[in-house]
Amino acid sequence: MERNWAGNLTYSATEFVRPASIAEIQRVVADNPRVRALGSRHSFNDVADTAGVAVSPEALPPDVVVEGSTVTVSAGTRYGVLAAVLEERGLALANLASLPHISVGGAVATGTHGSGVRNGCLSTSVAAVELVGADGTLRRTSRGDQEFAGSVVALGALGVVVRVTLDVRTTFAVRQDVYPDVPWAPVLADLDAVLACGYSVSLFTTWTGPLQVWVKSTDTTPPADVYGASPSPVPLHMIAGESVEAVTEQGGVPGPWLDRLPHFRMGHKPSSGEELQTEYLVPRDRAVEALTRVRAMGERVAPLLHVTEIRTIAADELWLSGAHGRDAVAVHFTWHLDPAGVFAVLPDIEAALLPLGARPHWGKCFTATARDLAPLYPRWTDFAELRREHDPSDKFGNAYLDRVLG
Predict the structure, then answer these.
(1) What is the extent of the structural domain holding 287?
(2) For a designed S-S bond to 142, which of 103, 128, 238, 296 qualifies (C-beta 3.0 to 4.6 A apart)?
(3) 264, 248: one domain
């Protein structure tokens, strides 16, 4: 019995395979009528599930190849592993997600992101992807190709991604400062300024109390205080009661990018472990209205919640990205492992946020279906045509894609 990381989903695949070569993945795809790629299992829904064969690229050799300003790596490689190799070579990625435990292929396919008003989602660092198509043929698409923007955040619907090429830059140092007990009113009055006060900024809340503001700075000096709140002299976890040994170093001590941009250390348990997650990316110019609407539901949301994180993502041109065509503010909920309670409140959260243009994170818990989602993505029909072209027999389809793409 195979389950996802959180333990809320048991996969229904008839077979799980971990090929050690791309050629073997090609054979598996060509020989089976239903196939899905399975990443590091950090999705909280059935995006990677299948009634057929689940193919994991995690056994592929990392094969890290640096060429000029790019690095190519196997899709199953975890960001934390890749980051360590790059740092040894004096290189870096522009940004990382809150936890480095996730695979490159899975994170890219679902539009996963970190934070920063000038930082796009992780998928915007992709320069090329290599994937195995429905007939077992290996195909590569790179930035500038006509179909590239539809092939990066693609939910596994176009094939099994086996290698990804990412942009890299020179390594850089980051410091992290955490400001507890920040009041809501001045933050909402000047939200853009707060979210732009560092290279990467996150706001944490339980909706019924003040905010915790995490500021990750590079070449800028962090604020001396955030509306009267000074930086904490001791490390803090964003979830009450969790061990601070799991979080990356705070206190304004500079360190390598890979040891500060994520919230969690690679060798420790990320977040709370037993949990569900939900996230909605709202247009940045509607963020204050979105936060105000959720705050009005705070007493109902709080008992189900570990914590909410609020982050920024810069606009991009990737067709199914949550930040396609507009800067976004992400409202992320880390829930207790209570599926019944969570799914009872999600329709009301979506009723408040989707009319503002909110797009759900593809790998987390949500109830919206294709009818709700299609109006939110200008290139929706283009992606549907791309999918029909590359998978006319629906080999890579599953119940999730039927539900959210139609």
Answers:
(1) 173-367
(2) 128
(3) yes
